[in-house]
Amino acid sequence: MSSDVSILLSAIQRGDSNAAEDLLPLIYNQLREMARTKMAQEAAGQTLQATALVHEAYLRLVDKPVAQEWHSRKHFFAAAAEAMRRILIENVRRKQALKRGGDLNRIELPLNDLPEANSAVNVLQIDEALTRLAKQDAQAAELVKLRYFTGLPLAEAAEMLEMSERSARRLWAYARSFLLEELSPGA
Questions:
Q1: CATH annotation of 2-96
Q2: What is the Cα–Cα distance from 61 to 55, expressed in whole angstroms?
Q3: Which pTM value belongs to this model?
Q4: What does the mean pLDDT of the chain come to?
């Protein structure tokens, strides 16, 4: 299956419009699982559905006037994780726009750990902290995106980033402590 995905990604790069239609059934379940994991982490009252998140992310990835270049299947799924993250952030920003009555409230975090998946921590605060992390360590920020925003296990995220699991574990510890510091009161 992964070779079929790679072949179709190459065909999309070459401008084959039918390849995009053939790709979705092959990767839909994996994208849906990524979206379902992320949606389970969202605060109650989220109106965006996992199916809509998958479709929007997929359209952003393959429905472009200029074909995107995919270096590998891993590259495609990393881009899908990033697209889902951006969609969720845009959705939160849209809902919290002042013209719609939204105000950002700072949420107290425990000092011992980064929020877990079912926490009600503000996605915008995490995104801002993640942007600051990316300026210091882009790979650490990518690891957080893969783990936190798509729910990938450490081993899979390490594979996506082409690093050892041990290195990923150290990088994850660093990223978590960085984000904890950034998201703590008075930061």
A1: 1.10.1740
A2: 10
A3: 0.50
A4: 76
